[in-house]
């Protein structure tokens, strides 16, 4: 048997017969002739190779096969009636699978906590983490539905961007390094100790390079890594210094006890992280995702980082 052997209309006819116990009454409800209803039922019996009704009694009764078809037909018809709303109407926020992209510095532990708040809304998730540019390409190719990224996509009209948080860049030094309190100290540090960088193809690496150029600082290139875990491990091993935002510190918090975290003596160097979706495609889901993300950030996300560096708290806007 193939699906074309029956359709929604024939299932609707069968459900009416089953509920009313009469082909005549079913015909009246559906605006059909009694013979048309009888023909549909016989077609179904042929398609399923099973007797569906016991015609020897009145009102008509369902056989065991008829009971099974009545049960599944009801489920199918209920789902079918919901399709217009689910596809483009009031319930368009439903997604059978949500594909989320997240920049590497935020991915853990943010994504696991986020999914706890969304799992009642979405049955299945696919998660991609990586560099900002790579995630942008996947989003534009429609391989991702939602992004958590420091790219606001303000160059595109059909994209909706909601700010999740704004955070400063901070100065990371080996635990026993001397304190740096002003720009002169930062310049002296850059001349004597290697800068542990993020790679220049990453958004973090580009932001840091741009900030150093604004200060007129040309820092020699010694080490560059695409993972902030490795950047912080290098600082912890006294291989150099670095500039990173607090979310990166949360992700690699196992290194915090071996690192000195200080305010950057050149203020105003910050980045924002946004929730990015396509306009009008996910109904109310983008607002729910944004709200769930804000809840994760507000419920102790930076607790360990702020316990060691309480001065950072007013610099993070959520």
What labels would you give this structure?
318 residues; alpha/beta; Arc Repressor Mutant, subunit A; D-Maltodextrin-Binding Protein, domain 2; 3 domains; 5-stranded mixed beta sheet; 3-stranded antiparallel beta sheet; 12 helices; 45% helix; rod-shaped; DNA binding; DNA-binding; LysR_HTH_N; WH_DNA-bd_sf
Descriptive report:
By secondary structure, this protein is an alpha/beta fold. It has twelve helices and twelve strands. Strands 4-3-5-12-6 form a five-stranded mixed β-sheet, with helices on both faces. Strands 10-7-11 form a three-stranded antiparallel β-sheet. The mean pLDDT is 92.
Biggest beta sheet attributes: 5 strands, mixed
Number of strands: 12
By secondary-structure content and strand pairing, the structural class works out as: alpha/beta
Number of helical regions: 12
Q: Determine Rg (CA atoms, Å).
A: 30 Å
SSE order:
HHHEEHEHEHEEEHEHEHEHEEHH
Task: Report the CATH topology name of the largest domain.
Answer: D-Maltodextrin-Binding Protein, domain 2
Determine the N-to-C terminus distance.
Answer: 57 Å
When the domains are counted, the total is 3
Query: Mean pLDDT across all residues, rounded?
Result: 92
Relative strand content? 15-25%
Assign a percent range to the helix content.
40-55%
Unreliable sequence segments? none
CATH architecture of the largest domain: 3-Layer(aba) Sandwich
């Amino acid at each position: 048997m193939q699906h074309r052997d029956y359709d929604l209309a024939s299932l609707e006819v069968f459900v009416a017969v089953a509920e009313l116990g009469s082909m005549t009454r079913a015909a009246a409800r559906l605006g059909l002739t009694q013979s048309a209803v009888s023909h549909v039922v016989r077609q179904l019996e042929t398609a399923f190779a099973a007797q569906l009704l016991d015609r020897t009694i009145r009102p008509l009764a369902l056989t065991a096969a008829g009971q099974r078809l009545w049960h599944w037909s009801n489920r199918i018809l209920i789902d079918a009636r919901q399709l217009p709303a689910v596809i483009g109407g009031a319930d368009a926020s439903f997604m059978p699978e949500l594909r989320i992209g997240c920049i590497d510095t935020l991915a853990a532990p943010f994504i696991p906590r986020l999914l706890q708040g969304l799992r009642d809304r979405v049955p299945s998730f696919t998660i991609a983490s990586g560099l900002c540019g790579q995630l942008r390409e996947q989003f534009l190719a429609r391989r991702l539905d939602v992004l958590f990224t420091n790219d606001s996509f303000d160059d595109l009209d059909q994209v909706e961007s909601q700010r999740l948080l704004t955070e400063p860049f901070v100065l990371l030094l080996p635990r026993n390094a001397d304190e740096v309190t002003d720009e002169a100290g930062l310049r002296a540090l850059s001349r004597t100790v290697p800068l542990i960088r993020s790679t220049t193809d990453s958004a973090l690496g580009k932001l840091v390079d741009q900030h150093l150029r604004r200060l007129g600082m040309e820092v020699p290139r010694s080490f560059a890594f695409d993972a902030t875990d490795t950047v912080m491990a290098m600082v912890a091993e006294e291989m150099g210094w670095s500039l990173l935002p607090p979310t990166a510190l949360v992700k690699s918090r196992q290194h915090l006890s071996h690192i000195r975290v200080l305010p950057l003596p050149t203020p105003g160097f910050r980045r924002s992280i946004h929730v990015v979706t396509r306009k009008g495609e996910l109904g109310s889901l983008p607002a729910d995702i944004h709200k769930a993300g804000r809840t994760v950030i507000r419920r102790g996300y930076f607790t360990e980082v702020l316990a060691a560096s309480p001065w950072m708290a007013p610099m993070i806007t959520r």
